[in-house]
Amino acid sequence: MLQIDVMSRIPVYEQIVSQVERLVAAGIMSPGDQMPSVRGLSVELSVNPNTIQKAYTELDNRGYVTSVPGKGCFIAPDAAALINRRGKQRLGEMEVLAKTLYQMGVTREEMHDAVDRAVDSDKKL
Amino acid sequence: MLQIDVMSRIPVYEQIVSQVERLVAAGIMSPGDQMPSVRGLSVELSVNPNTIQKAYTELDNRGYVTSVPGKGCFIAPDAAALINRRGKQRLGEMEVLAKTLYQMGVTREEMHDAVDRAVDSDKKL
Amino acid sequence: MLQIDVMSRIPVYEQIVSQVERLVAAGIMSPGDQMPSVRGLSVELSVNPNTIQKAYTELDNRGYVTSVPGKGCFIAPDAAALINRRGKQRLGEMEVLAKTLYQMGVTREEMHDAVDRAVDSDKKL
Amino acid sequence: MLQIDVMSRIPVYEQIVSQVERLVAAGIMSPGDQMPSVRGLSVELSVNPNTIQKAYTELDNRGYVTSVPGKGCFIAPDAAALINRRGKQRLGEMEVLAKTLYQMGVTREEMHDAVDRAVDSDKKL
DNA sequence: GTGGTCTAGACCACT
DNA sequence: GTGGTCTAGACCACG
After folding, report:
1. What is the CA radius of gyration of chain A?
2. How many contacts, defined by CB atoms under 8 Å, are there between A and B?
3. Cys bridge to A115: B98, C93, D9, D118, which one at CB 3.0-4.6 A?
4. What pLDDT, on a 0 to 100 scale, did the predictor assign at position D6?
5. In the beta sheet, which residues pair with residue C97?
6. Which of C26, C94, C98 shows the shortest C-beta gap to D103?
7. Which pLDDT band, with edges at 50, 70 and 90, does B1 fall under?
8. Half-sphere exposure of residue B44, counting CA atoms within 13 Å on the CB side?
9. How many Cα neighbours within 13 Å face the side chain of C51?
């Protein structure tokens, strides 16, 4: 269910967090669902268990999952809402990027087009 | 003319590159203009000369600037065009970010608004 | 596998870049192969780690290699193609040199012979 | 008669030496001809007199000119022969370059073509 | 004075 | 352990 790109500059643990984020927001993973075990996911992705643990800790910090010692790690009831809130906060990143590109001579329309392309490409899937 | 935020996670040399990029694109620095000397900028920004040197080397690699040992560092004739081209290439980053945010439940309109805010805030200055 | 000539006027980091270029083009290093670590190569060649780092950064900039912090530095999938493309671009250097030598009274045949000597000496190895 | 490119990476004094080399080899300057004065050439090219002096010193070292204190600087009788000899020595540079390019996947034919292009472009002028 | 290279030694985040 | 950034201080060639 998860795929990681070891060649990417994005830290592996962050890739895992992002993908869980996406799966929950898309409704593929639902509140109450159990996450794979740290050791299981470690072998499945051929990734160091420490890295998986770091991702899970981050997911817990963000409130997307609740770890129950001895039982496992479960998607939190309000995960989707939290993710949506976090998404809105990240609009600031887009604002910063847009400002930078605008200062480099990219037009408002070109940026709107890029956003539309992204949205449409996602709708198709 | 340049300002550095030492607390930022963005490397100092990258901050310098970005700011020169902006100044050239805005026409504040023009082709043929001489950049501040490595040592001069070093003391002005209280940054190690090697860090400035790294920024200047990067600017040269990108073709924004031509460094002439013993003479100085000058804005290249086609710097603005190169910067614009690089800006268009970076639209891919915006597409990736937009896709991610969309998957987190952010709407197309909210993203368009973010772009518009960025453009308008820059126009005001 | 790499050898450095500290007495040469060619910067050490450029020597490293050139040699890796050669090894990859010759198929001795293949896509996906891991480069020696910065520190490891540093002690092996008795060169400062910063110098190695500079070489690796340049290799990354040229797309021959992808550096993954915390994991290592790996030969890029399309490294050989990029190197070949760069080689063709550098034919311009040969043209400039040939023109200069011709103006100094060196004949076309003498230059062809020099090229042939170089090619043959490389084939023998 | 001489033209220098301040933006070039090639040192100004070397540009001057090369151009005098070319003019003599082409027969435009002949043995016995007087070189421009250091001060005169300095203002004509808008170049620091020290730089001109350095070029003249190098020309003298190579035996292309003989400086007569108080009278001036004159093209040596055997200048053309010396230049031709130097040209042949520089075939080594071409050999090194050819070997490098060959190792980067450039073919023998492509290099021969580059040499021919250079020779032909010079013949046309 | 200029840019460019190198060494030495430190710190950071990530695996 | 890895790569990446930064500081401090030195040396070089060029103008």
Report:
1. 17
2. 137
3. B98
4. 80
5. none
6. C26
7. confident
8. 12
9. 16
Query: Within 7 Å: CB of B71 and strand F?
Result: yes
CA distances from A68 to A32, A34, A73, D96, D125 (A): 12, 10, 6, 67, 84
Residue B9, CB, strand F, below 7 Å: no
Question: If DSSP codes are grouped into helix, strand and coil, which group holds residue C125?
Answer: coil
B65 phi/psi in degrees, rounded to 5: -150, 150
In angstroms, rounded to a whole number, what is the distance separating the alpha carbons of residues B100 and B121? 24
For residue D56, is it left (φ>0), alpha (ψ between -120 and 50) or beta? alpha
| Residues sharing a CB contact under 8 Å with residue D70, sequence separation 6 or more, in sequence order | none
User: How far does Cα D9 stand from its chain's mean position?
Assistant: 15
Contact between A21 and A29 (Cβ < 8 Å): no
Following CA atoms D2, D3, D5, D9 in sequence, which dihedral angle do they give, to the nearest 10 degrees?
Answer: -30
> Are D97 and C94 within 8 A, CB to CB?
yes
* Strand-pair partners of D73: D67
Nearest CB to C115: which of D92, D112, D117? D112
Adjacent-strand bridge partners of D34: D74
Q: How far is the CA of A29 from the C1' of F10 (A)?
A: 59
CA–CA gap between residue A41 and residue A18 (Å, rounded): 15
pLDDT tens for each residue of chain C, 125 residues long: 899 999 998 999 999 999 999 999 999 999 999 999 999 999 999 999 999 999 999 999 999 999 988 889 999 999 999 999 999 999 999 999 999 999 999 999 999 999 999 999 988 87
The pLDDT of residue D87 is 93
Q: Which two tokens stand for residue B98?
A: 């937009």
CA D118, chain centre distance (Å) = 16
